[in-house]
Each structure stands twice: as C-alpha cells, then as structure tokens.
Write a structure and sequence with these properties.
Layout lengths: L1 H19 L10 E4 L4 E4 L2 E2 L7 E3 L2 H5 L4 E2 L1 H17 L5 E3 L21 E5 L2 E2 L5 E2 L20 E2 L2 E3 L1 H17 L3 E6 L5 H5 L4 H7 L14 E7 L7
Helix pairs in contact: 3-4, 4-6
Length: 235
Amino acid sequence: MATKFFLSRHKAKLLLIGCLNFSPVWAQSSICYGSTADGRLENGVRLPGSGKNFLAYGSIPILAGRTFVHDKVRDVVLAAYTELYRQAPKKVFKYAECGFKNGGRFKPHKTHRNGLSVDFTVPVIDAGGRSVHLPTHVFNRFGYDIEFDKTGRFSNYRIDFEALGAHIVALHKMAEKQGVGIWRVLFAPDLQPYLFQSTYGAYIRKHVKIPAKRSWVRHDDHYHVDFQVPCRPLH
C-alpha cells in the first residue's frame, strides 16, 4: 500500500511539473489597441528573465510587472536573441523596460503603452575587450541614470557598436519573417555615426528608421524599439 501511495504521489508531482511547463494551445493571443503613446494591451506576455545570451535589467522590475509585451513582439525578440547566439555565442545582451500586462500609462515613459515598445540596454565591452552586461541596479535606476560620453564610453565600459548593429539587424530580419514591422529605433544622435560605421551600418540605413533628432531623453544607455503590429482602435 505504501509503495502504491508513493507511486501515486510521484505521478502527481510529474503531472504538476508538466502542467507548469506546458503552454496551452488555447492561450489567447495578445491584442493591442491604439498607439504606443496612447493605447492598451490585452493578454500581454512576459519576456523571460534570462536566456543563453541575454538577461533582463533587474529582478525588481520583473516583479513589478514591467516586462510585458505583445506576444508577437516577444517572439521576434527571442528569435533575434537565438540568431545572435548562433552568430556570436560569446556576445551577451540585456533588455530593459517593456510595459505592463494590460498596457496603459507606463511612467516615466511617454510610450510603452500597448505592448509594442521595448528598451534594450546597450551591449558593452569591458576594459579587457570582453562582451559583458552593463551593470543595472536600483542605485543607477536600472541603467537609466548611466551617461556615456560622446565616444560611447562610461567608466571601464564602451558601447559595442558591432553587437548593437547586429542586434538591430537581427530584430529587423526576425520581424520580417514573422510578419511584424519595426516603426523606429531611438538611439542617441551623437552616437549614431559609430553605429553607421559598423559592419551593419549600410543595412540599418536602408531598412531601419533611426531619427536623427534627439527625443526627450538621450537614449545613450539604451535604444528604444517600436514594433508594428495591427492594433484595434483605442476608442
């Protein structure tokens, strides 16, 4: 009897584990409304906290529910990371602010309201030339208080413009494969020449809109990507 009871508990445990790791086929797709600046989201999904070559910008923002996106955006972001790992497995990346599960006002941002906006922390190289994660924590407002100089340097770190270019190209190509568009990428105008001088500069100039005019924040410690997915009217 004891053996039978143990086996029953063991089977139940396996079933529970299976349920926790199972993504039901009936899960509802995300629906976006309005625009990135005035919108909302239904059935938002959370980006994974980590992967083979990427990390989120902090556990506190994850717990605060600030890493939700439209499911199509999630698929593009993860596909791009997979492609980057295939191309250069020693390069590491980090993403930052996304949005709330149901979208809406996302302070202090003016956008990020309908699941189609993602901030990515700039990839960096340390003093030894190694690809590393830029430190993001509560004392530097999870990276948003970091200021790079006009050559792309901060402390012992410098922006890896090759990795940055590779990421933008991977996002664009994976988005095209999945029927998703990229409306724009916001990145510091004074640092854009270094990006365009990279191996990926010509492709980016041709296929990706990066405004030359500075927005309300510099976008030097991160680059902001707005994706394009058909959305329903907000009102």
